Recover the amino acids of this structure.
């Protein structure tokens, strides 16, 4: 998978969209928490709107589609994957919205119970709780994760449509923050041993899903060692872990 030249710009826009659309939820939940004794004191209608914020947001959908189609075009110039992109974005947002609300409700329930057991709601306790649930950190994880997955799936769609023979390799960019695959500090225990390996050695995991904020990706390697859509400047996975490639995949050029 090639990194979009506009990746940082688009992911910054995604983070801003999620922060903006969850800010009213954060403020409204804070108001409910002032008097709530149990999670049931927060109306179901509020959680329905929280779900819709993810599942039915046109601005979010449009930007994810742009990242999907642009990545496809970097893999196979001129290819049209708009239909596949629309289907992916719709399905993806529909699938993550329920779990987003489920975790939000769970964190809210824990916070309300904790404040009740400690003598009642406080301004500090409410602020801490709503920032965890609808604050910047969680919004940024969603923006970065979904941007990365749209790029991965855009590249995959292009490869499928063009019918290019490739092997899928678990990979990472040259930039390796703490906690990520084979980072210098706290390397991810899920991603690190899989990097450089073909998908039959992934053990049911997929790049981009290893941990919150995972930015691992899929390299599409042809029989002659060419990475489709990447000139080698983005990822150093093959430089570091070429010995992990399956024996017999690469061929000599005729």
């Amino acid at each position: 998978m090639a990194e979009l030249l506009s990746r940082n710009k688009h992911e910054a826009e995604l983070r801003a969209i999620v922060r903006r659309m969850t800010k009213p939820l954060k403020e409204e939940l804070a108001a409910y928490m002032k008097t709530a004794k149990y999670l049931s004191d927060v109306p179901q209608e509020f959680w329905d709107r929280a779900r819709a914020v993810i599942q039915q947001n046109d601005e979010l959908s449009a930007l994810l589609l742009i990242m999907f189609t642009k990545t496809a075009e970097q893999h196979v110039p001129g290819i049209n994957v708009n239909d596949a992109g629309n289907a992916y974005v719709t399905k993806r947002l529909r699938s993550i919205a329920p779990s987003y609300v489920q975790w939000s409700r769970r964190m809210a329930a824990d916070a309300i119970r904790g404040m009740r057991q400690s003598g009642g709601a406080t301004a500090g306790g409410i602020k801490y709780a709503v920032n965890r649930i609808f604050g910047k950190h969680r919004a940024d994880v969603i923006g970065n994760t979904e941007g990365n997955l749209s790029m991965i799936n855009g590249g995959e769609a292009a490869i499928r449509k063009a019918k290019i023979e490739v092997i899928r390799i678990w990979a990472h960019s040259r930039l390796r923050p703490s906690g990520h695959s084979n980072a210098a500090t706290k390397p991810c225990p899920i991603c690190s041993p899989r990097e450089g390996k073909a998908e039959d050695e992934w053990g049911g995991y997929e790049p981009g899903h290893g941990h919150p904020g995972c930015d691992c990706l899929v390299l599409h390697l042809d029989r002659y060692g060419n990475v489709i859509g990447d000139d080698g400047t983005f990822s150093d996975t093959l430089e570091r872990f070429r010995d992990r490639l399956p024996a017999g995949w690469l061929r000599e050029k005729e």
Remarks:
- The longest strand covers residues 167-171.
- The first helix runs from residue 7 to 33.
- Strands lie at 167-171, 217-221.
- The CA atoms of residues 223 and 248 lie 9 Å apart.
